[in-house]
Amino acid sequence: MRIAFIILAHKNPAQLHRLLTRLQHPNIDCFVHIDRKCKIEDYAEALSLPQVYTITPRVKVTWAGWSIVQATLNGMEAIRQSGKSYTYITMLSGQDYVIKTTEHIYQTLIQPGNRQYIGLISEKDLKPMMSKVDNYHLVECNFPGKYKFASLLTKILPARKTPFGLKIYSGSGWWTLTQDCVNYLLDYIRERPQLVRYFKLTWGSDEFIFQTILMGSPYKEAVTGYDLHYIDWGNDRSKGQNHPKTLGVEDVELMLKSDRLVARKFEMDKDPALLDKIDQELKRLFP
Asked: Which domains does the chain have, with CATH numbers?
């Protein structure tokens, strides 16, 4: 039995290499997408590690744009094309890091089950964020005045309606899902170009599309409403907190005490000793 990770990376090749090194295990495969804006040769050492596979085609990723979803879908397709069977597939960023030993992560995710670990925010917290889907957004476009033009589109065009009568749900873009669930999402999106067109005009579509599909699917009852990441969003994400805290040494005790498997986000260049401390603590806690 195996588990897999999809990892989206866009900076810090050395940090990605360290994450992939920590995930080395005979029954763990890592499928890595390197942002097309990056020089692939800078990541050669990381991508040459055993059981690490480069996701193609590579996508030029724009923050909050559809391109994040497209890179994820390419990762899902790469896993399917591998022909391998996995109990769980976990979505990571290159700025994540493990906060449990690799063996603990493997033993946790190797257990067969139907639970789908994906975050959901409450309807109360979702309400002030609905402009991200109700308004027209041209995230992937790059021309002067694009925000004013998008605002004009929102005023003059018909109100946006979610295709297929789906109700909008939202949560973190990071998740741990069973392979059959991942394949369901991949097929659902690929077979519905109308849904793709809708979410291409959404702000932060990666934090809406998967939750929205799953909560209108046979997997609804299996959705946990939380993922397996330790992330510090501050006291109230509904106030518009778009970026999680960059974790520091002061967060180590809390993150290691949590039941989460990985944490984000880290900047190894700014605090190189932090990941060393996590490794040292894990050796002490899991001798």
From this structure: 2-285 (3.90.550)
